[in-house]
Design a protein that fits this description.
The chain is α+β, with helices and mostly antiparallel strands. The protein is built from three helices and nine strands; from the N terminus they run αβββββαββαββ. The protein has one domain: Homing Intron 3 (I-Ppo) Encoded Endonuclease, Chain A (Alpha-Beta Complex), CATH 3.90.75. The two termini are 24 Å apart.
Length: 123
């Protein structure tokens, strides 16, 4: 996937500022490699995974989906945003990718042991 680019011309700046206020950013030197932790409210999630970050955009949405959309564009139908880092509260666009819904669900269900929130996994 290409590097994320923030399109400031097509961005609701007030919405973006509200989102950014709830994200704990690492130092600039580590922005690509470390998780951008969501500090706002959470919702959803099942099993060991726990909660996802919740962001209000006129309706409830997930914070990581918003991050993906502002950096890469719209998420196609029947696709989900996957956390490559395995941290459901991460909003770092370098840690996000889209997968067909079926592939993402199958990938998650095949994991034997997962430590969400810490960014590690064991297969």
């Amino acid at each position: 996937m290409s590097d994320p680019k923030l399109d400031l011309n097509n961005l609701n700046r007030e919405e973006y500022e509200r989102w950014l206020d709830k994200v704990q950013l690492p130092s600039p030197a580590k922005r690509q490699t470390e998780c951008w932790h969501w500090l706002g409210s959470t919702r959803g999630g099942r099993g060991k995974g726990g909660q996802y970050g919740q962001f209000w955009r006129g309706k409830p949405d997930y914070a990581h989906r918003y991050s993906f959309e502002i950096h890469y564009g719209p998420i196609p139908d029947n696709y989900e945003v996957d956390h490559v880092c395995k941290n459901r509260l991460c909003c770092n666009p370098w840690h996000l990718r889209i997968l067909p819904r079926r592939s993402n669900r199958r990938r998650v269900s095949h994991r034997k042991e997962v430590k969400w929130g810490g960014g590690t996994t064991k297969n």
